[in-house]
Amino acid sequence: MPKFTHNATPTIVRTPSGDSPVEELPVRLPDETARRLEQVFSAITDSIVCIDHNWNCTFANSAALAMLKADTLLGANLWTRFPQNLEEPFASNYRRTMEQRIPAEFEAYYPAPLDTWFRISVHPFEDGIIIFGNDISDRKRAEAVRDATARRLNQVLEATSDGIVSLDRGWRYTFLNHRATQFLGRDDLQGKIAWEEFPHLIDSEFSDKMRRAMEERVATEIEAWYPEPLERWFSLQIRPSEDGIVIFFRDITERRRSEQIFRHQRDLITFVQQASRTAFWNLDLATGNLSFDVGSYPVFGHDFSKLTNIQAFRAIVHPDDRVQVTSDVANAIATGALIVNEFRVIDAEGRTVWVEARSRTEVVDGKAVTLGGMTIDIAERKRNAEALAASEQRYRVLTELSPQFLWTGSPDGQITYANQGFLDYLGFTMDDIGGDTWLTAFYPEDRHRVRETWTRSVASGDVYEIEARMIEGGTQRSRWWWLRGLPLRNEAGAIVDWLGVAVDIHERKTAADALHQKQLETERQRAELETLYQTAPIGLALFDPVEFRYLRLNERQAEIVGLPPDEVLGKRLTEIAPIPGLNEMFEKVAAGTPIRNAMIEGTVTARPDEHRFWAVNYYPVFHADGSVRAITAASLEITAQKKAELALIESEKLAAVGRLATSISHEINNPLEAVTNLLYLIATDPTLPDQIAPFVETAQSELARVCQIATHTLRFHRQAVRATWVTGEELVGAVLNLYRGRLVNSGIQVEARYDTQAPLLCLENDIRQVLNNLIDNAIGAMRLGGRLLARTHSGTRFTPEHPGGQRGMRIVIADTGHGMSAAVMARVFEPFYTTKSLSGTGLGLWISSGIVARHHGSIRIRSCEDPKRHGTVFSFFLPHISETEIEAATPLAG
């Protein structure tokens, strides 16, 4: 900014607090006003520097000179005087305001020599730019301190061994430090609700304390166990915060375990002290105060509350031993060595008691401060000392007399002793058990296992235990023995000896092996029975005796009911087979009465359209107390046999009718011939009136048809014994003639076409039976009329056996009846399968397919139930083969 003068037309830049937009107000100021305004600018504590378009300074107030550490700046170039301005963010902001006339504001650090943080506001004016600057170093340093403090606090929170979480008043996690995520095993809790993520908190000790801190704003603490999935002990300090609560917690599982172990060890030490009659004590050398460990045994015969200092203790020491005890204590203090001494005390009853004391001083900074030790009642030991040798001798004698085999071993695994009974059994002497000789006592196949197990126990210190065979020295027979050895350890825990025993288990072992073999045999028999059960050709099942539910069934039973086993198990009998009277039969069996060789008939739910027959046996299975615990069922399906019986009866009826028809046909042949001759004579009589001649001709035609029917009836009944040559027209035409009346009465139009007159060698009557079945079925499918198509033509069949083709005759019978479904077509050639209810046997098409097969032919079916295009087509192919290749069939009856 130029200096204010009379003639100058300065630009007053107004920046309230340095934050408002700059407004340029060109005015003409009088000299006095200009001086005052310059004084005001000079008195402003903010730095104000004006830069012209050549980047030279035209004005700098006193605050600017002080901040920029300059005596004068007028005429100084911005870039050369302060080269750091060439760096960012100074350069770009200055240039943008100068060139684009856009104000700019930023904060930046200017290094030495200024070493200052500036908050700079740059504004354009007529002659260049004005730079307003504030020294914000103190604020920046405060912010740096604050950020550093925050970082350190965050580092402390992250580095602390405590877990720290904060929960808002909605019990949502708002903060978790790293340790907390480790303790909780979750790093996805931010924003989630504590009760939902850790449901075991609800109605627990934790929740009581947490709710009190949240609702009553009372700081609480707790130590408690959290179950799965954490399974840890936690110590919690819960503090209310402005937004909710903050929880400081740590895993104290190890501490609690250590405390438990400590208590256990304390109890154990107490037990040991009481059992070993030992007292642990500590003498403060500075005060002379004497204290005893918890659980110490009253070894001195006085209450410990009366032995609180060294003077009280000296008073109970036997007068003859006081000098020695005093000397030993002084020696322990002087040397710091472990001192062991034996002396006598006088108990409260005035009796002398022998004790042994072991003591050592604790030195701190080179000075003995305490004397600690333990005292044992050795009166018993003293009394037993003389008896020890005799006791050892008695022990050895008892060992030798023991009925059990006893042995010992050294820490390195050498066998050092076996009692005499053991040696006598093995045929060994004490000299024989050294080195590896003892292994020869074992059965050869067991020696490696015995050595390996013994070596492993010696190395690890684990209990030695094995079952092996040892050889009796006298008989050289082997027996099974159980050997067990335990390590005997010293105070340091080192093994000093192995003590062992050997027990004869031969009878038990062999009995166990026999039992195992028996179990294997039983399992084999069970597997065989299970195989028989599952593969039996009859249906087998087991039912409960109350609701008659399936408990078990074999594959055949599942096939009978038409469902997989897993869909049958657990279902009631009547749900699977709703047969009248069946439930009553089971009630009778449940009462204890078996059902033998009963016949039942009906349907099962899986195949409700099939009426079936079964031969059944039902037996109760009794408990030991005589009550019925289950019902067994054996079912043999005899549907095929029953249908065969019915078919046989029907066939026998047909055969009887056939024989009767044959007899009638045979008997009427002679009268028919006579009537035929008479009609011939009448027709050839010249006196026959013309009006009568047509009637005679009609009578001759009808009589010829009667003769033909009689002839075909004879042919149907008489079974062919050898193949004959016959044309397709002769085969089909004869059957159509038999059904001419039914066809006319049913309104069925017959379309027959014979494209070949080449004869075929076949069993003529059998093929007519096939055609009879097909045409009868076609008529039955067209009860409301329709078209029956019959075709015969020469054809060629290609099969794997005849890749070059096989010549023969194809016969097609088609109708425009109601058609068949895919399910019916899939079973149409099965025996006894019929859709005619009681009017059909289900054998016609089965027999027909068999006849075609015996002629080495094939039969196919196509059918459709579409409302507009419906009907069925049967087509069978008969190849040209020799008479010897045709398989003659035995008739069903007749």
Short key terms for the protein model shown above:
894 residues; alpha+beta; Beta-Lactamase; 7 domains; five-stranded antiparallel sheet; 34 strands; disordered N terminus
Distance between the termini: 141 Å
Largest sheet report: 5 strands, antiparallel
CATH class of the largest domain: Alpha Beta
Please identify which CATH superfamily of the largest domain we are dealing with.
Answer: Histidine kinase-like ATPase, C-terminal domain
Level-2 CATH architecture of the largest domain: 2-Layer Sandwich
Shape: flat
| Low confidence ranges | 1-28, 889-894
Radius of gyration: 60 Å
- Provide the domain count: 7
Order of the strands making up the biggest sheet:
4-3-7-6-5
Helix content: 25-40%
Summarize this, please?
The protein is an alpha+beta fold and 894 residues long. It has a five-stranded antiparallel β-sheet with strand order 4-3-7-6-5, sandwiched between helices.
